[in-house]
């Protein structure tokens, strides 16, 4: 009957395939959809599974397999569309700073100023080349996943066994798997023999999963679907038979591939702030250039061509040609420093993003923990002994209630652990240096490590008590047993001893007694005591095993022992102890979490492991909070709005699928965000634009009105609109992980962090940062570096912008006050832009972190590089330099000094004024009248000396001084004025720093606020999802819901 039904379905599929070949493609598409959406783990029996997919244990016929291959396609992942070279080149060109430089080059080329044209074009090429080298790597996450798929598979087709290429598998194929195989497709298991599959890279489960044939509920997580085997996971023990139910993109790993390909990478705040800076610079430069042209043409009555040349000269002088390269250098230096601390940055802007992090979402297995199972507790009838040490290295000790055990207790512990060594099929290899390599099941290796901590010699013990028989572990029975020969007291006979290790509920029925408190005799079994002890240990998230022993009865044939015989055997064994095993947190991670909390950063754990295990680790790390744990199935049942409402309050997520991790990251990124104080809340630091805050408040008010109209609608609207509160109030999220299951969330996070040693290539390619040492603590070091980079970028702007503006305004005001000739020539201006600014800018890029950088709260998302303090300092220093340069230039002309020598003086006064200013810029607010100015940055004085030496070289070297329009050497009095200008700039700016908060800012702040309120919105906001445009969308959606709610009422 079953065969007829199967043949009938096969015939139906054949007819369907023929129809596909002719015209009815939609029907085939529907079949693909049905198979992909079927909850195969819920079907109760093998015949139901085979009937549903139209196959049998004889397998598909070759013809049927070919037809299904035509319908479903190869068992391969769809590769993502990769950008070509020109797309990458356009991505580098499509930058407003680059466009400003290109426009400058075009204009000077039209004016046939070839030297200036060559220099500006060279700057453009260098910037683009650096960008291509740093950012031009194509996305490889999907390729890495594809490489993980099995190359071949053993299948049954037409009743015969074949080995075929894995990409030829189709739904309905019968596949044979064994220990060591990589599973080639998603399988519903039909038969298993001690089958264990390592799924850590997919589910986060830290130990191999014992497979069975029992169906589970539809909502069960991947880790609980024990009747399934998933593509790209590895068989660690046993063998099995399964039917292919999903291939290629329909397999679980294919779903991850689609998620990785579909996740869009958001712009970092640095990129947005540089766009804002570029727009502001463009507006300022164009405005000043137009003003200069009109001034020269109408006021000075110059020829239009000459007036245009003057305007171009001023514009070129004000453009910070070296700034894009300097920003890249700052980020690259930060990247280099991080690499020395084992944090490898793949995308430069990510360096700055680290300084804004408010939350780190971390995978548990292999990230917060070492992914090395460890015996952490030993429960005997006398006491519970705690075991210290993490991982497979046998470093640790035994204690009871915080006190190291006595020698007598240690003897008892060694006796107990002898059984765990003998009843064990695994081993621990030592290379003689520092590396311990597990061989076999992680749980068993943990027991060997504990025995070594206790001082047992594993090899000698196995030689002294050779194994004579064993009953291997089977997932169906959940125990293993071994029989060992041992000498009797008179050494005249051999008395075999049997050890049984496994699940306590399976072991206890075999026992009629337990080891006494002194460990020397057998007493009646207290079953209630052991059940409570097991429950207590399990409640802490520990994996609990039991160990028992007993002598084999005289004349009993041990060769006949098997699981059934042991279960039917009269209870006669002695219950020895409970063994509590865990993959505990790394010791250094506990301290790193404390530092993160001090820096205002929340740490959340997202794992595929069990809820109790996750909670136990969370308590050890200090992140458990109110002990709330949310599981993957619970997240699946939540709306996005509900998830957003609980995501801040819960720090531990268990049984999380890839989709769950992605939703958690998105919920954090969409707000509501951190409620505490943030760096950037100061009135002079500037968070998001005021207009954006106002529009956001309108959105929230719209939510309130919707709530009054229709209560059900309000729940939906509130969380969506909370996503559009000011961008500083949403979380900046890092996601750490090492498995394939982490890849989508790694890519979606503001900063994805992959593990370099244990991490898969998939996770490394999807991440923006890779930890070479797999140490969570390295993230904290990287965060500190990210905060340092932000500070140095601000120092760079606060130095570079006033210097560039001073050049342009020097030429501009020279026309205004009526000088016949410009104080600076075009080549001198370009030299300052490209050489002196870059030389001293690199010095600022190397500045160490300022004191207390990790005691600050996280930086507010959307905080501007150009806050009021930075803008005021730019205006003040620009005015100071313009006055000094024009004053010295006028002084020189008044003294009858020739034009070229007067220009030489103006040139040197400007550069030496920069040297005086750059010293003050090392600290934004702290004074440099302090010994700290002489330490921390060896490049500081080297850069200043190099800049001064270059000025002397340019002024006195024949040919070179002619090229820079300085054919005559300067007089000593001119050098004195240049040196005096350096000292004056330094002293005046230091005085300004002392007075800026109590005196200057209260005066200039209202004026800056007024200007900010009247500037066009596009100049102050970035093109991002949380910008004003997104708020407009939210307002429109809210209005629609309001109208719909009113109609329903």
TrEMBL record:
Keyword annotations from UniProtKB, A to Z: ATP-binding, Cell membrane, Magnesium, Membrane, Nucleotide-binding, Phosphoprotein, Translocase, Transmembrane, Transmembrane helix
GO molecular function annotations of the record: ATP binding; ATP hydrolysis activity; P-type sodium:potassium-exchanging transporter activity
Location in the cell: Cell membrane
The UniProt record lists the keyword Cell membrane: yes
Gene3D superfamilies for this protein: Calcium-transporting ATPase, cytoplasmic domain N (3.40.1110.10), Calcium-transporting ATPase, cytoplasmic transduction domain A (2.70.150.10), Calcium-transporting ATPase, transmembrane domain (1.20.1110.10), HAD superfamily/HAD-like (3.40.50.1000)
GO biological process: intracellular potassium ion homeostasis; intracellular sodium ion homeostasis; potassium ion import across plasma membrane; proton transmembrane transport; sodium ion export across plasma membrane
Transmembrane spans: 89-108, 114-133, 276-299, 311-332, 796-816, 828-849, 870-892, 904-924, 936-954, 974-991
Pfam families: Cation_ATPase, Cation_ATPase_C, Cation_ATPase_N, E1-E2_ATPase
Listed GO CC annotations: plasma membrane
Domain Cation-transporting P-type ATPase N-terminal: from-to ranges: 39-113
Cell membrane found in the keyword field: yes
PROSITE patterns: ATPASE_E1_E2 (PS00154)
Main location class: membrane
Topological relation to the membrane, as annotated: Multi-pass membrane protein
Protein origin, superkingdom: Eukaryota
Identification of the protein by name: Cation-transporting P-type ATPase N-terminal domain-containing protein
Organism: Chlamydomonas eustigma
């Amino acid at each position: 009957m079953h065969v007829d039904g199967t043949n009938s379905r096969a015939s139906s599929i054949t007819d369907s395939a023929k129809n596909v070949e002719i015209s009815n493609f939609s029907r085939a598409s529907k079949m693909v959809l049905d198979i992909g959406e079927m909850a195969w783990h819920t079907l109760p029996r093998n015949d139901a599974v085979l009937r549903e997919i139209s196959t049998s244990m004889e397998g598909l016929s070759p013809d049927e397999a070919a037809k299904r291959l035509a319908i479903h396609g190869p068992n391969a992942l769809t590769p993502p569309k990769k950008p070509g070279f020109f797309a990458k080149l356009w991505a580098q060109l499509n930058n407003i700073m680059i466009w400003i430089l290109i426009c400058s080059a075009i204009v000077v080329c039209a004016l046939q100023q070839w030297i200036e044209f060559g220099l500006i074009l060279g700057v453009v090429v260098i910037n683009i080349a650096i960008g291509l080298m740093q950012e031009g790597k194509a996305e490889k996450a999907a390729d890495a996943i594809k490489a993980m798929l099995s190359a071949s598979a053993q299948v049954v087709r037409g009743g015969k066994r074949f080995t075929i290429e894995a990409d030829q598998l189709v739904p309905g194929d019968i596949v044979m798997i064994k220990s060591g195989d990589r599973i080639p497709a998603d399988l519903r298991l039909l038969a298993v023999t001690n089958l264990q599959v390592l799924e850590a890279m997919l589910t986060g489960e830290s130990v191999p999963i014992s497979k069975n044939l029992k169906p589970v509920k539809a909502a069960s997580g991947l880790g609980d679907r024990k009747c399934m085997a998933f593509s790209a996971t590895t068989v660690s023990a046993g063998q099995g038979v399964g039917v292919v139910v999903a291939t290629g993109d329909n397999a679980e790993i294919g779903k991850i591939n689609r998620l990785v390909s579909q996740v869009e990478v958001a712009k970092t705040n640095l990129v947005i702030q540089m766009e804002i800076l570029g727009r502001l610079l463009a507006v300022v430069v164009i405005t000043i250039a137009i003003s200069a042209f009109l001034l020269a043409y109408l006021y000075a009555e110059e020829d239009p061509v000459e007036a245009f040349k003057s305007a171009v000269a001023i514009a070129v002088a004000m453009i910070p040609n070296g700034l894009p390269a300097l920003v890249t250098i700052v980020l690259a230096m930060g990247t280099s420093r991080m690499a020395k601390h084992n944090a490898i940055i793949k995308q430069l802007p990510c360096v700055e993003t680290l300084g804004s992090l408010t939350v780190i979402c971390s995978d548990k297995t292999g990230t917060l923990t070492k992914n090395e199972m460890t015996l952490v507790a030993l429960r005997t009838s006398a006491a519970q002994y705690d075991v210290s040490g993490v991982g497979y290295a046998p470093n640790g000790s035994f204690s009871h209630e915080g006190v190291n055990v006595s020698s007598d207790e240690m003897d008892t512990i060694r006796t107990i652990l002898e059984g765990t060594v003998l009843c064990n099929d695994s081993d621990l290899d030592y290379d003689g240096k520092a590396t311990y390599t597990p061989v076999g099941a992680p749980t068993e290796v943990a027991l060997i490590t504990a025995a070594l901590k206790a001082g047992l010699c594993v090899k000698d013990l196995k030689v002294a008590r050779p194994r004579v028989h064993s009953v291997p572990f089977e997932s169906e029975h959940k125990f293993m047993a071994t029989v060992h020969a041992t000498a009797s007291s008179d050494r005249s006979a051999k008395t075999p001893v049997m050890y049984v290790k496994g699940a306590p509920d399976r072991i206890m029925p075999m026992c009629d007694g337990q080891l006494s408190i002194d460990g020397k005799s057998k007493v009646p079994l207290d079953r209630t005591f052991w059940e409570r002890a097991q429950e207590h240990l399990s409640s802490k998230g520990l994996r609990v095993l039991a160990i028992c022993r007993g002598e084999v009865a005289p004349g009993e044939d041990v060769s006949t022992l098997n699981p059934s015989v042991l279960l039917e055997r009269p209870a006669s064994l002695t219950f020895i102890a409970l063994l509590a095993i865990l993959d505990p947190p790394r010791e250094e991670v506990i301290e790193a979490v404390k530092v993160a909390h001090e820096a205002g950063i929340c740490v959340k754990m997202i794992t595929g492991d069990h809820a109790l295990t996750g909670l136990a680790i969370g308590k050890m790390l200090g992140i458990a909070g109110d002990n709330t744990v949310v599981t993957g199935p619970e997240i699946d049942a939540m709306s996005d709005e509900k998830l957003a409402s609980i995501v801040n309050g819960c720090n531990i997520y268990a049984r999380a699928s890839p989709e769950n991790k992605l939703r958690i990251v998105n919920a954090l990124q969409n707000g509501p965000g951190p409620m505490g104080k943030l760096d950037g809340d100061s009135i002079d630091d500037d968070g998001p634009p005021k207009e954006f805050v106002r529009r956001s408040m309108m959105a929230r008010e719209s939510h309130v009105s919707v709530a009054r109209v229709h209560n059900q609608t309000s729940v939906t609207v509130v969380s969506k609109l909370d996503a559009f509160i000011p961008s500083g109030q949403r979380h900046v999220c890092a996601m750490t992980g090492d498995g394939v299951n982490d890849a989508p969330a790694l890519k979606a996070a503001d900063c994805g962090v992959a593990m370099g040693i244990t991490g898969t290539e998939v996770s490394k390619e999807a991440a923006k940062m890779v930890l070479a040492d797999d140490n969570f603590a390295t993230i904290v070091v990287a965060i500190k570096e990210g905060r340092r980079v932000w500070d140095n970028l601000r120092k760079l702007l606060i130095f570079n912008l006033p210097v560039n503006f001073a050049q342009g305004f020097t030429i501009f005001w020279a026309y205004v006050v009526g000088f016949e000739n410009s104080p600076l020539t075009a080549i001198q201006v370009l030299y300052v832009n490209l050489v002196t600014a870059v030389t001293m800018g690199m010095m600022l890029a190397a500045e160490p972190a300022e004191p207390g950088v990790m005691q600050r709260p996280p930086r507010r998302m959307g905080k501007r590089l150009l806050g009021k303090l930075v803008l005021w300092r730019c205006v003040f220093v620009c005015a100071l330099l313009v006055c000094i340069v024009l004053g010295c230039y006028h002084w020189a002309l008044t003294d009858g000094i020739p034009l070229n020598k007067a220009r030489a003086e103006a040139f040197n006064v400007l550069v030496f004024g920069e040297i005086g200013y750059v010293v003050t810029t090392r600290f934004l607010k702290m004074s440099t009248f302090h010994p700290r100015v002489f330490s921390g940055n060896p490049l500081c004085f080297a850069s200043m000396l190099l800049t001064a030496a270059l000025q002397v070289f340019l002024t006195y070297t024949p040919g070179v001084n002619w090229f820079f329009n300085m054919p005559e050497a300067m007089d000593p009095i001119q050098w004195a004025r240049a040196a005096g200008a350096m000292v004056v700039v330094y002293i005046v700016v230091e005085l300004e720093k002392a007075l800026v908060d109590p005196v200057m800012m209260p005066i200039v702040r209202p004026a800056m606020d007024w200007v900010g309120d009247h500037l066009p919105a596009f100049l102050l906001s970035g093109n991002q999802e949380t910008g004003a445009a997104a708020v407009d969308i939210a307002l429109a959606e809210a209005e629609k819901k309001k109208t719909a709610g009113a109609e329903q009422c």
